[in-house]
Design goal:
The chain has a four-stranded mixed beta sheet, covered by helices on one side. The protein is an alpha+beta fold and 298 residues long. It has eight helices and six strands, in the order βββαββααβααααα.
Length: 298
């Protein structure tokens, strides 16, 4: 299984009978899987099906899915007479005419068109058919949309993998260079410790030479970067294994980036050498670039 990016996009259109629709699916980075769907409520059971399908194929990402459905012009709504409202209108009209006549006022004759134009007397009712066939078609079509979406994330993941491979190779090269520099500085460090020991003994009477030598030896151990270099090499191997394994390895890679950064920081603090410090800083820069790319991995 290959590594996939968390960013992706897919769209599609379709139609069935009087209905036509359009899909739009997109995703960005997220710590987990966050599904946000906008689906018409009258398509019973469709949203639950879509969520299950997306959950089975996707591991991480903030994923948005929108479905817009429209009806054709030939699917005119049915006009229904609101009889209770019309009865109330007629009753009110009769009372108004009676009051007018008692007052000697002649009201104009009310036409049927006037009555029907009153708001609410005629109601437009959508002639919805059974939505089940439409839901079935949409479910089937979504399989293709989801497949297209996953393929795009896989294509971006392939490009992302190559970038990470190159950066990982650079980390490995710098780690090997740091090992050579650390090995080359050992005689210089040993000589500096001997000189410091001699200086202390020459300028202090009654000092325990063994105690001073022990303290200097402890300083030498603290400045040794062998463990940091060994751990960096181990992290390179672990990261390479994750890239080769593929799948949803984003969280593990993110944790490894923290470990990489910790070892590079310690290497810089213990370098005591301008060349080794320079390599440590280069390591930190490459690791930071890797960390940014890892944020896109599913």
């Amino acid at each position: 299984m290959k590594i996939r990016s968390m960013t992706g996009f897919a769209s599609g259109q379709g139609s069935l009978g009087v209905h036509s629709w359009s899909w739009e699916m997109r995703s960005v980075n997220a710590k987990g899987l966050d599904l946000r769907l906008r689906v018409p409520d009258w398509l019973e059971g469709l949203e639950a099906h879509l969520r299950r399908a997306m959950g089975a194929k996707l591991a991480r990402g903030n994923v948005s899915l929108g479905l817009r459905i429209s009806r054709g012009e030939d699917s005119a709504d049915t006009l229904t007479l609101n009889k209770p409202l019309l009865s109330s209108v007629l009753k009110a009209l009769a009372e108004a005419e009676a009051l007018a006549q008692s007052a000697g006022v002649d009201l104009s004759v009310t036409s049927g068109a006037d009555l029907l134009s009153i708001r609410g007397v005629l109601e437009a009712t959508a002639s919805e058919d059974d939505p089940a066939p439409l839901v079935a078609v949409l479910q089937k079509e979504f399989e293709n949309l989801l497949s297209q979406f996953v393929q795009m994330r896989a294509a971006e993941g392939a490009a992302l993998t190559q970038v990470l491979q190159d950066q990982l190779a650079e980390v490995s090269r710098l780690t090997q260079l740091a090992a050579k520099l650390a090995e080359a500085r050992k005689p210089l460090v040993a000589e500096a410790l001997r000189a410091n020991l001699a200086r202390v003994l020459d300028n202090a009477d009654g000092v325990d030479a063994n105690r001073v030598a022990l303290e200097l030896a402890m300083l030498a151990v603290k400045s040794d970067v062998t463990e940091e270099i060994d751990r960096l090499a181990a992290h390179v191997s672990a990261a390479q294994e994750l890239l080769d394994k593929g799948g949803a390895v984003g969280r593990k890679m993110d944790f490894l980036m923290q470990e990489f950064n910790r070892e590079a920081n310690t290497l810089c603090s213990k370098a005591l050498n301008s060349d080794l410090t320079s390599v440590g800083l280069e390591l930190k820069a490459v690791i930071d670039q890797m960390r940014e790319q890892v944020q896109n991995i599913e």
